[in-house]
Amino acid sequence: xxxxxxxxxxxxxxxxxxxxxxxxxxxxxxxxxxxxxxxxxxxxxxxxxxxxxxxxxxxxxxxxxxxxxxxxxxxxxxxxxxxxxxxxxxxxxxxxxxxxxxxxxxxxxxxxxxxxxxxxxxxxxxxxxxxxxxxxxxxxxxxxxxxxxxxxxxxxxxxxxxxxxxxxxxxxxxxxxxxxxxxxxxxxxxxxxxxxxxxxxxxxxxxxxxxxxxxxxxxxxxxxxxxxxxxxxxxxxxxxxxxxxxxxxxxxxxxxxxxxxxxxxxxxxxxxxxxxxxxxxxxxxxxxxxxxxxxxxxxxxxxxxxxxxxxxxxxxxxxxxxxxxxxxxxxxxxxxxxxxxxxxxxxxxxxxxxxxxxxxxxxxxxxxxxxxxxxxxxxxxxxxxxxxxxxxxxxxxxxxx
Length: 401
Prior knowledge:
This protein is of the alpha/beta class and 401 residues long. 51% of the residues lie in helices and 8% in strands. The protein is built from 14 helices and five strands. A five-stranded mixed sheet has the order 3-2-1-4-5, sandwiched between helices. A hairpin with a 5-residue loop joins strand 2 and strand 3 (217-224). The longest helix is centred in the N-terminal third of the chain and has 30 residues, at 3-32.
């Protein structure tokens, strides 16, 4: 066979291949083609959708509104005022846009209930993809528009104010926050391998957070919890690196209250899952505890309890944390960030109820820290000895709090 005939056969084969491929694509596109521009059920939204029928009634009954959105009407109106420019959309000749009030209501219901976009689609009579887009856009707006006011980056004076609050509430000196990490269950990210697979054998993100004495988040960090993350998930996080490298803008060292020295650093308190470091205190081991060490563990637990309560309040209000979040990793991070900001906004506007403080149900994360040097052990011993002194005793009126 000469080269010309060979070239013709190859060309015919290539053309036949592409023709068959094009026909296959056409059949698939035809199969996926929607039967309606807008489904007849969704056309009833202006008159029969939940927003049209019940939004005004919800506002007339504060308790019902609170149960649906997990916040009071004034707090909802505050959020709407702040987010309105980001949520407002133009109407077109083809269709009317979803108003900002409905967008915010849909997102709050998604976070408060943990139900799927499909369920909300039947509820609000909007397409599933429309619901998903509204939730993600609104979560992004909440994080970007409210973060600077609800969760500002702490400066030295803010850290000092937090330390004053911990000393007044828990009698733990030089404490600038309580630290802990919780696993948030997510669906398996495609092609992720073991990056998000934790020691409990499910896929998750780690929500690392610091709180103040008023159950508000001071800083949050959301990252992967891979199979090898047990050893260094905190030190590898952005929050951990900033703390260990001294980029947290913490106040200068100062003596503990009522003493003349030596100067002690300002610290975060955490449980035994974290490693001991210059600015991070953890309890003594449970074996062979002396009285000063046992007293130190009790006092540290008193301060660390605040972050457990903060996580409990967060998860009891936003039920999305009780389910597997059916979003991509990036979108799940947005939803978690939005919940943390909303938590702070509600704490500021509505305060904390006593009942909320005992709700704790998020799984903790295991950590193993680096081996500290001797100076860090001596620093912890100094705190322990201070708690045994008259200056460090818990006043009698706080002993059973």
